[in-house]
C-alpha cells in the first residue's frame, strides 16, 4: 500500500541520499519494503536499494535488520561467507513519511525464480549440491561465528550472486536500457540505464543534473519476453538475504518464526528453538531445489487446522514424533493426546524420503538413498540431534563425485584430499 506509513513510491530516475543513488528498476518487494536496482554515482556500481515502509513498526524492523547485516559485514571483511553485504544505510523522507533505506550489494535471481525457470521440475543433484555448500557456508558463519539465527530461510531468500553487470549486459540482466552518455566526454561517468520510454526526458534531466552536463540518449531496447535458463555452466554461487526476521540466539524477538512451509516442528509446538530451526528450513529448501515441489505444503482440512496437518505430513515422511517431544511444547495439548498421537488426524500414510524420491520423483535408487541420508538427520524431531551447518559441510554427499568429474583423476584426487 502506497499510503502514509506504507511503501515509498519510486519513479525511475529518482535520487536518494543527496543524489548518490539513482533508481533504475524495481527488483522485488516484500511485506516490508520495495527493492530497487539503483546506480551508485559515487562508486559507479549497481546496488540494490531496499526502501522500508515508513511506519514506526517497519522502521524498527529495519533498524534491527541493519544491526544484523552490519554485524555480518563486520565479521566478513573479505565478503566470502555467503551473506548479502550491507553497503550503506540512510533515511529518505517522502510523502508517506520517513523511510529507512538499506543499500545492499546487487545480487541476481532468487532460487525460487530458478525453480520456476525450471518449470518446477527440479534441478540436477550436482547443482543442488553446489548450492547447498554455499547456503551451509552462510549458515555456519551466522550460527557459529555470529550467534545469529536467520529464521526465514527459503528459496526466495537465497539469491544467486549476479555475474551480470547491468551496464554491460543489459539484456541478460533483464533491463531495457536507455544509455546516456555525457556529451563530449568518453569516460561516461554518468552512464545510466533507465527503462521506460516516457521517462526519457526525466532521465535526461536527472543525468544532466548529476553530471552537470547535457547528456544524449543513445539507444533503447526491449528485454526478451521469455528468458529460459539453461543452467549448464552457470556458477551457482549464492547468498543468504532478508534478515528482517533474524535474531540473536540469546536475544529472540518472536515465538512464531519462519515461513509456514519451512517451519520447524519445535516452532509449531512452541518448545523453544535455536540455530537448528535454520537447518530444518535448509533441508526443506534442498528438497525443493531437487524436486521443484515444496517438501511440506500443509493445508487446513475438515476438523483440523494447518498446524496439525503440518505435523501429520512431517510424521508421514519422517516417522512418528517421539512422545516426549510431541507432548513437550506449550502448544502440544492443542494437537496431541497424552499418548503422543495426533488428536484429529488418526490415520497416517507413511512414505519415507528415499521412497518418495524414487517413486514420485524417479531418482535412481542409489542417488535417492544418498540424498535422503544427507537430509534425514537434518530433520530430526529432536532439534539438538540435528547436525550443525559445520557438520553438514563435512558430509560425504556434498563431496560426492559428479558425472562431470568422474573418471577425471584430478577430480578424484581432490575429493580424496577433502575426505582424507
Ligand atoms: P519479506 O516480505 O520476504 O520479508 P522484505 O520486504 O524483507 O520481504 P526482501 O526479501 O529483503 O524484502 O527483498 C524482496 C525482494 O527483493 C527479494 O525477494 C528479491 O527479489 C529482491 N532483492 C532483495 N535484495 C536484493 C539484492 N541484494 N539484490 C537483488 N535483488 C534483491
Ligand atoms: Mg524476503
Ligand atoms: Mg524481510
From TrEMBL:
Binding site for ATP: 50
GO MF term (any one): ATP binding
Domain of life: Eukaryota
Record-annotated Protein kinase domain positions: 21-398
Keyword annotations of the record: ATP-binding, Kinase, Nucleotide-binding, Serine/threonine-protein kinase, Transferase
EC number of this enzyme: 2.7.11.1
Residue stretches in coiled coil: none
Pfam families: Pkinase (PF00069)
PROSITE patterns in the cross-refs: PROTEIN_KINASE_ATP, PROTEIN_KINASE_DOM, PROTEIN_KINASE_ST
BP-aspect Gene Ontology terms: regulation of mRNA processing; spliceosomal complex assembly
Catalytic activity entry: L-seryl-[protein] + ATP = O-phospho-L-seryl-[protein] + ADP + H(+); L-threonyl-[protein] + ATP = O-phospho-L-threonyl-[protein] + ADP + H(+)
Family stated for the protein in its record: Belongs to the protein kinase superfamily.
Protein name per the record: non-specific serine/threonine protein kinase
Native source species: Capsella rubella
Amino acid at each position: 500500500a502506497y499510503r502514509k506509513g506504507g511503501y515509498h513510491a519510486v519513479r525511475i530516475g529518482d535520487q536518494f541520499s543527496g543524489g548518490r543513488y539513482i533508481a533504475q528498476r524495481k527488483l522485488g518487494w516484500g511485506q516490508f519494503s520495495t527493492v530497487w536496482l539503483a546506480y551508485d554515482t559515487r562508486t559507479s556500481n549497481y546496488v540494490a536499494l531496499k526502501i522500508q515502509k515508513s511506519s514506526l513498526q517497519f522502521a524498527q524492523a529495519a533498524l534491527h535488520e541493519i544491526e544484523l547485516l552490519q554485524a555480518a559485514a563486520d565479521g566478513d571483511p573479505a565478503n566470502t561467507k555467503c551473506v548479502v553485504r550491507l553497503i550503506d544505510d540512510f533515511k529518505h523522507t517522502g510523502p508517506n513519511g520517513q523511510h529507512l533505506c538499506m543499500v545492499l550489494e546487487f545480487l541476481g535471481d532468487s532460487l525460487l525464480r530458478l525453480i520456476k525457470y525450471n518449470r518446477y521440475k527440479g534441478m540436477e543433484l550436482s547443482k543442488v549440491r553446489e548450492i547447498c555448500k554455499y547456503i551451509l557456508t552462510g549458515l555456519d558463519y551466522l550460527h557459529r561465528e555470529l550467534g545469529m539465527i536467520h529464521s526465514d530461510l527459503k528459496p526466495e531468500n537465497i539469491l544467486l550472486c549476479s555475474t551480470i553487470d547491468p551496464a554491460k549486459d543489459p539484456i541478460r540482466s533483464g533491463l531495457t536500457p536507455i544509455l546516456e552518455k555525457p556529451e563530449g566526454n568518453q569516460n561516461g561517468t554518468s552512464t545510466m540505464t533507465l527503462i521506460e520510454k516516457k521517462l526519457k526526458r526525466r532521465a535526461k534531466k536527472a543525468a544532466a543534473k548529476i553530471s552537470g552536463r547535457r547528456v544524449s540518449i543513445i539507444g533503447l531496447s526491449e528485454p526478451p519476453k521469455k528468458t529460459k535458463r539453461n543452467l549448464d555452466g552457470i556458477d551457482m554461487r549464492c547468498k543468504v538475504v532478508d534478515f528482517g526476521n533474524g535474531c540473536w540466539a540469546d536475544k529472540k524477538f518472536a515465538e512464531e518464526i519462519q515461513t509456514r512451509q519451512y517451519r520447524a516442528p519445535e516452532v509449531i509446538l512452541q518448545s523453544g528453538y535455536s540455530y537448528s530451526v535454520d537447518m530444518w528450513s535448509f533441508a526443506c529448501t534442498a528438497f525443493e531445489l531437487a524436486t521443484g515441489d515444496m517438501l511440506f505444503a500443509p493445508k487446513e482440512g475438515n476438523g483440523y487446522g494447518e498446524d496439525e496437518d503440518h505435523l501429520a505430513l512431517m510424521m508421514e515422511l519422517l516417522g512418528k514424533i517421539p512422545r516426549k517431544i510431541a507432548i513437550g511444547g506449550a502448544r502440544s495439548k492443542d494437537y496431541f493426546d497424552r499418548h503422543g498421537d495426533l488428536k484429529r488426524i488418526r490415520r497416517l500414510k507413511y512414505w519415507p524420503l528415499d521412497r518418495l524420491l524414487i517413486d514420485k520423483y524417479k531418482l535412481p535408487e542409489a542417488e535417492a538413498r544418498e540424498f535422503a541420508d544427507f537430509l534425514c538427520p537434518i530433520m530430526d524431531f529432536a532439534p539438538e540431534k540435528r547436525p550443525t551447518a559445520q557438520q553438514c559441510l563435512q558430509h560425504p554427499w556434498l563431496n560426492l563425485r559428479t558425472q562431470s568429474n568422474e573418471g577425471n583423476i584430478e577430480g578424484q584426487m581432490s575429493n580424496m584430499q577433502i575426505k582424507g
